[in-house]
Specification:
2 domains, two-stranded antiparallel sheet, about 5% strand, mainly alpha
């Protein structure tokens, strides 16, 4: 990276944030579609009852067809947004690897859409499970692009050694990432097949503990760039526990409460639980990306005015202080020889 990178256009980051926000729409509608059992509202794909994707009278439809076609339209939206992001990165981003990330995201979104279509053509709940399980990985990729195009990524630094993330924090972050993703996949097994209910409950405890430990450890570094996602992860895991409890009660009942399939409470709790899991996974992913960035910065030693050496992680654009040179003797001034 050069100092010119700091003055690059802010549009790649803005469009990346737009893509990350737009991706929440197909996730939400997909969760609603699964909750309502509307995944096979249309037996055909890419058409809907023989209509083209943009020709189907969606606003006049109701029920399952409204949800399923809305999910398809949301997929078109994120596809168009991913294409826009790839083009913006290609035209305005100087780092080749970031441009490749843009095309990688576009490819992943297209493959995700094709996977959803194949699920319809074969009427396979297992393909629906795979389609749902890969969605957080695609969403994670949108946040990776948003992170690496941010100004914070370009100017990231650890001012003092005490705030440098240690190896233990890095492995805690990776382990928590794996736990949260595993929990999301187990939740998909419960939603689509009614399997792994006990495993889902066990992993809920493990993932929650991992998230809380990670949030506390990251925030305790005192580094502002880590504190924000750490607080986000801590807040989201608490919300997710509440949503999970509500989902269990409205789906399986509790004490004298009888679960009513398709009730408004059940639909919103189950859908909110899926969406909360996606956001929690994104938060843990963002924390991993920032930790990776800080760990990759080169380390230098600088001298404080008091003569105390302080370890510092510097960006490649930061120059080390150059010691002053001794003054050169003046020759031929004031009549000297």
């Amino acid at each position: 990276m050069t100092t010119n990178d700091l003055s690059e256009s802010r549009w790649p980051h803005r469009v990346a944030i737009l893509a990350a926000l737009a991706a929440l729409l197909p996730v939400t509608l997909g969760a609603l579609t699964t909750t309502q059992g509307a995944g096979m509202a249309f037996p055909d794909w890419p058409t809907s009852d023989g209509h083209g994707m943009l020709e189907y009278p969606w606003l006049s439809s109701v029920g399952d067809k409204f949800l399923e076609h809305g999910h398809r339209l949301a997929g078109v939206l994120i596809g168009a947004t991913a294409l826009l992001l790839a083009l913006v990165l290609w035209g305005l981003e100087s780092r080749a690897w970031v441009r490749k990330l843009g095309w990688g995201l576009l490819t992943a979104v297209v493959l995700q859409g094709v996977l959803g279509g194949i699920r319809v053509r074969y009427n396979s709940t297992w393909l629906a499970f795979v389609h749902g399980s890969t969605a957080p990985l695609v969403y994670c990729l949108t946040w990776l692009i948003a992170c690496v195009t941010s100004r914070g990524w370009l100017t990231a630094r650890v001012p003092v050694a005490e705030q440098a993330p240690g190896r233990g924090l890095k492995w805690l972050a990776i382990g928590t990432w794996l736990l949260v993703y595993s929990q999301y996949v187990l939740g998909g097994l419960v939603r689509h097949h009614g399997l792994a209910v006990r495993e889902h409950l066990i992993f809920a405890v493990l993932a929650a503990l991992g998230c809380i430990l990670l949030a506390v450890a990251a925030a305790s570094t005192g580094h502002r760039w880590l504190t924000t996602p750490a607080l986000l992860v801590g807040g989201l895991v608490l919300c997710q526990l509440v949503l999970g409890a509500g989902t269990w009660i409205t789906k399986y009942g509790w004490d004298d409460r009888v679960a009513v399939y398709g009730s408004t409470q059940q639909v919103w709790f189950r859908t909110g639980h899926v969406l909360g899991g996606m956001l929690l996974f994104a938060g843990v992913s963002l924390l991993n990306f920032r930790l990776l960035r800080l760990k990759s910065l080169p380390v230098a030693i600088r001298e404080e005015p008091q003569g105390i050496a302080v370890a510092e992680r510097l960006t490649p654009t930061t120059e080390l202080p150059v010691p002053p040179r001794a003054p050169r003797p003046l020759v031929g001034v004031g009549g000297g020889a």
